[in-house]
Amino acid sequence: MVDKTSAEFKSLDEISGGDIRIGCAESAGMNHFIKSTRALQKKHPNIRFHFYSSASDAITERIEKGLLDLAVIVKQVDLFKYNYLTVPHSDRWGILTRADDPLATQKSVTVTDLQNLPLIVSRQGMQEALLDWFGEQSSNLHIAATYDLLFNTTIMVRENLGYPLGFDGLVNTGTDSDLRFIPLEPALHSPMHIIWKKYQVFTPVAKLLLAELKECM
User: Based on the domain organization, do 77 and 142 belong to the same domain?
Assistant: First the structure.
């Protein structure tokens, strides 16, 4: 960490370039963040962005260890532990199915619809919001598999391994696709936040990105 920070400051006497390390959960709302990174890169073309994509829990762990400058998370989190910006976006939960699945004709799915189905959930387990949504049925669910990134579950769906629980907008489920996204009912959404450690010492380029994000948010 010391070598990383020293190298950053040494190369940025005139903010000519540098590296920014960012953790990000999978979300269609990342476009809000990317617009800010692109605006900064237009001003400083030699800035490089290094994105680490994973589940929110893995990202917050890397923030705690000082391995990331900023992180974008999509979940309820103890915001007293971090400084943060709230992104004007939330992600809707649902399941992925094959287009020829009986559930694909439904406008939504309920706890009753899902309680006997093979479900595919995040490797780090279900978020508290999901557990609350399932309520007393949480302990009776059939978990067929776990995953890190939702895209990989498209193959699992096509091979009838199960039904992934995840966010809308991450894979193609339009009329030209063999997959469908069915939202949960009652509706469940997760908020998006940009977080960083309290009392964190930013490199000059990370400071520039934070300023750009504050202006955009």
Answer: no
